[in-house]
Amino acid sequence: MDFNFSDQHIMLRDSIRNFAAKEILPIAEQIDEEDHWPDGMWEKLAGLGVMGITVDEEYGGAGADLLSAVIVLEELAKASPSIALSWGAHANLCCNNLNHNASHEQKKKYLPPLCSGKHIGALGLTEPNAGSDAVNIQTVAVKKGDYYVVNGTKMFITNGTVANTIVLYAKTDKEKGARGITAFILDTGFPGFSVSKKLKKYGHRGSPTAELVLEDCMIPSENVMGEENKGIHVMMSGLDVERAFYAGEAIGIAEACLEFSVKYAKERVQFGKPIGTFQLIQAKLADMYTQLEAGKILCYRAAVLADQARRGGKGTEIHKLAAASILFNAEMATRVADQAVQIHGGYGYMLEYPVQRFLRDAKLLEIGAGTSEIRRLIIARELLGI
Ligand SMILES: Cc1cc2nc3c(=O)[nH]c(=O)nc-3n(C[C@H](O)[C@H](O)[C@H](O)COP(=O)(O)OP(=O)(O)OC[C@H]3O[C@@H](n4cnc5c(N)ncnc54)[C@H](O)[C@@H]3O)c2cc1C
């Protein structure tokens, strides 16, 4: 067992860390306040060569492993979870999904502009009435000649307002439940696609979240990803990777909160002493560190195993491990961010200090990519074999 990152992972981590400290952290509060990331940010990120980080090199990607993607996500999240979330939806939910499930022709067409950052990607699964119960989606795709005519509404879609390419799920056989779902590659230029609303959020402000409408949207048959009515396999394999991946965002949030808190505990003086000399503050810092370190082991292990499983490994161990990683780390990030606000006292509650932003951002990780409740159900079902 080797608990160290490889030299390549360390180089990647350091380059993203430097970029995030220089280009993102100084404007992170502005991104949150304006609920918008500044022009040029996406292009700067693309300049790092991480837009198709896990995509095969022949399609313009970096051909790296999932652990590398987790490292990038973690470092981006330390500065701005909002930027991390949007990058993750693009690089993982869209590009990584296409890399594993699309045909060679589809990859040749869609991946190069996504990997260069010219295009932005998203994933369209959730609907107004189908969140946790994802197989109950109501969006319908009916085959007519060389096209599918698609009708429905997608809800809470990250990058929805700016995306060019969306991995979209729709029912092609309403009677067959999970076995009637098909995955499509949607170009947002197709007729019948529109963004109906940009949604206002409590956290992750700056990462655009949208409601999307498909009204007689014409998707060519050649844009079916995988086979008709076999979309559930695409969806399920993607969910394990998504859970293993997004745990990295929780790690980044908790790391940032710990760093800000240690600094503040050394600087803030009360009763004539830095508050870091008080044992009740020390206990909080020690608990934050311990939970973070425990979370890292789970996160990195799940990332490595999820990658192996997707590349042809056997067994369902990864279902519960990926669910456990995001379950533990999402709740850990919220607890750690909450402690960070407490250590900062009244200043922690003020918008000019970053810890309140991290607390608001952390909460999403208990909801997106399957809620904490659903993650517990997945783990329990795997343990019980039911
Ligand atoms: C900011 C943001 C970004 C998102 N980005 C995307 C995206 O890019 N693409 C995408 O497709 N989706 C996205 N989502 C959607 C996200 O995956 C869903 O919100 C999530 O799966 C939960 O679905 P829901 O919101 O409909 O909640 P519901 O499923 O309605 O759940 C409500 C509550 O009931 C609980 N519950 C539901 N079923 C059970 C059960 N069987 N047992 C016990 N408790 C249960 C839930 O845990 C929760 O507490 C995003 C959401 C947000 C908020």
Task: Give a brief outline of the structure.
With 386 residues, this protein is of the alpha+beta class. Helices cover 53% and strands 15% of the residues.
Explain this structure.
- The protein folds into 3 domains: 113 residues, Acyl-CoA dehydrogenase/oxidase, N-terminal domain (Butyryl-Coa Dehydrogenase, subunit A, domain 1), CATH 1.10.540.10; 103 residues, Butyryl-CoA Dehydrogenase, subunit A, domain 2; 154 residues, Up-down Bundle (Butyryl-CoA Dehydrogenase, subunit A, domain 3).
- 53% of the residues lie in helices and 15% in strands.
- It is built from 11 helices and 10 strands.
- The strands form 3 sheets. Strands 1-4-5-8 form a 4-stranded mixed beta sheet. It has a 4-stranded antiparallel beta sheet with strand order 2-3-7-6, with helices on one face. A two-stranded antiparallel ribbon has the order 9-10.
- Strand 9 and strand 10 form a beta hairpin.
- Helix 5 runs antiparallel to helix 6, helix 7 runs antiparallel to helix 8 and helix 7 runs parallel beside helix 9.
- The longest helix has 37 residues.
- It is globular, with a radius of gyration of 21 Å.
- The model has no long low-confidence stretch (mean pLDDT 96).
- The protein binds flavin-adenine dinucleotide.
- Flavin-adenine dinucleotide binds next to strand 1, strand 3 and helix 11.
